[in-house]
Every structure is written in C-alpha cells, then in structure tokens.
Amino acid sequence: MEKKLTITIGRQFGSGGKAVAEELGRRLGIPVYDSELITEAARKSGIAEEFFKKRDEKRRALFIGMRSGMDDEILFGIQSDTIRELASKGSAIFVGRASDYVLREMDCIDVFICAPLEARIKRIMERQNLSAADAETLIDRKDRGRAEYYDFFTFSKWGEAANYDLCIDSSVLGIEGTADYIIEFARRRGLL
Fold it and tell me: 95: phi > 0 → left, psi -120 to 50 → alpha, else beta; which?
C-alpha cells in the first residue's frame, strides 16, 4: 500500500467489529491494534499490563474515589500516546479505546459498527457458549462500560453518528461485506 491509511473502529459488543477490523487488516496488509495497545502501553510505561487490562475501556465511577479517577486519566493518557505514536509510524487500524477522538487531528476513516440486539445476542451465544439471557446481560454491561469510557474521555457520545465518517450495521452485509464497504469508502475518499 503506497498511501498511509488509518482506520478507527468503534463497535457495539457482539457486532463483529473486531472481526471486521481483522478482515480489513488482512486484505489491506496493515496492522490491527486492539488488545495489542494494552501490551504496548504497558511496555512503554512500565505499568503492569494487568492494570491496563483491568481498566480496559471502562471508566470507574467518581464516587469510588478520586485516586481511581486520576489513575483512569493517567492510563488513558498513556494509551492515547501509544495510539498516536503507532499511527504516526504508518498505516494502521485501531479498534475501540476512543481512537477516533485520540486521532481527531489526523486524516482517518472513523467507523462505528453496530448490529441489532438479536444478531449480537446470537453472535455472543455462539462465540462464548452462553444462554440468550446471559449474552444479553453481557452485551448490556460491555456496551454500558464502553459508552461511559468514551463519553467521559471524549466529552462526546459513544455511537452517535455525528462522531464517525461511517456507521454500518454489520448484520446487513456480514463481516466480509462490511469490510468491502469500508474499503470502497476509503477508495472514494482517495485514501486508497
């Protein structure tokens, strides 16, 4: 790939956002950063990876104590620096972690991937061998955590169409079709 391409992917839990990112990375031959961001941020900061994992895309409530709030902001800053550094080096796809906001000064394609609740429940039931009720509970908890994290650090609203270049229901086109659509969008934007 000759041009530098940066794609950020926000996603509802169970929508297949990570699978779409991996498909894009495979087709475009560029790295995908998801949990790898935690490993890299931990390595650079010297803070234990488990500490990042425990707080990954979660925002602790302010009533828990000022110290935890400060810790969250420090971890977000370290992770944001890691995202910016990786993006400055070359083409990349970033999954979650408010990467659209972190890279707002760069020319990126910001994508939000969603799907109807029924489709997400089915995906999580199959992927994690859960009952429908347990899958729905997990989806609600994960989405709530992602929304609180994103909304707090970006002063914006997670999943709101105005924050993204493209919002796609992955249940309509499937994983491969959704990746095709994003690639075509990148071509029309002149980034491919």
Answer: beta
